[in-house]
Amino acid sequence: MLAADAVLIADCGLADPDSAALPLMAGADLLVVVVRADRVDSATRARLARLAVDGPPKALLLIGEGRTGEIAAALGVPVAAVWPLDPAAAQAIVTGDCTTARSGSLYIAARGLADTVAAQLIGSARPRCDRQRLTRWWRTRAGAPRRRVPGVYRLDTAVSAPTAAIDSPPGPAAEPPIQPAAAHGSAVVRGCTTGSDAPVRGSVEPTAVPAPSSAVVVPLAVEVFGRLRVLWNASPDTDPIEITRQLRPRQRELLTVLAVHPDGVTRDTLVEALWAGQNLRRPANALNTVLSRLRASVAAATGGVITDILDGDKVRYRLDPGRVRVDYRDFSAAVTALRTATSDDDRKHACRAILAAASGVLDEDFTSDWIAPIRENARRDRLNALGNLAQMLVDSDPRQTLALLETALVADPCNEPIYQDILRLHARLGEPAALNRTLALLNRRLQTIGDIPTQKTLDIARRLRDQPPDNRPNVDGHAKNPREKHRPWPS
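and the corresponding structure tokens:
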């Protein structure tokens, strides 16, 4: 059964996003959904689809006979176990009739599921005692009638994609492999197979959810500016579904490394980024394990629609542009377009594309050393785009230019030349009251790093305050000269 420190919350009511038990579900390590095999309808599929948007990993407990593979494919959730539909045995368990309950197939199946859940949550399960093994041996030798009990599947909440078997990575940094339930002594006497009632002995792997033959491959969206977000565009008529929380931390880091390398990355670079400073005995196996589990998690989150996200390159690992849209890839392409632009219109278009893709700090939740230089380069490219666009709009649209400068302060709050340009624009727009507020904000920001405004900034603010209202200054704080152009601030 489960460990003594495990907390089991049962009978949470209908598995629905509107359920009063939703906070309990959201904080669980595993959510087991009980479904009657003969009552799987469109309403059940809709509720599970809404629950799959967020929350913990999920598994199905089927009650009664049914085609396990078809049900798993229809609901998009792997089957953990199949229990018999036995009201009498269930009543005996509820009322505490131990003699009747322990002799029933439902009790045996329940013990097997408990061991399977324990193996998934803590990586080990309580072994069977010698007396239990002796009892099973005696019944076999004595020719006692064997009860027909359903199989208990290994509880792997990520639907396995069709990938080759690989060795488990060594070392403390690698995630331990999930062993079959039978290896922990689960009571597996008969297993259910897809579309067949043929008996199977031993452990049974969970049935992979196949993609419907008529389904169109819908791309994913990976956003690495700000916090990492993985969005599944399930349908062009609905909003994207975020599946980030269904990925484990190591899988998220791997996805981030791939996302910030649009042209692909070598195996050695991936291993160095994921296991920096660790002496792995078999780094290739460790990487293959994480890649396989990432594919499996994506397949589970998308109901088997997307089973792979790489482009198949044998030399470099790269996210497939036809299946995965990455904001950093759009950002990198826009930066290249800005550097090669030959007209103001092309430069404006490239600058706006850069700002649209870079909505925040690159990978703000990651603290690994490998991301630091990439993050700094992205910050500088974004500031350059803001400066170039502000330079092109300062004469035609000073209000939008002011908004761009204030946006730049979010990325670089202590950049004094930006405050100088903001002071000039406030004066040009006839907003003298904003001059003192801007100067006070600069003073507070610089105090956080032990600095004060330069004399140049103070002189600009003084000249702008003393400037007559009918003589609007140019960007240098002096009389307007239409032949002069705005120059972007240093980053």
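(Above: one complete record from the training split.) Residues 122-218, 475-487 have pLDDT under 50 and may be disordered.
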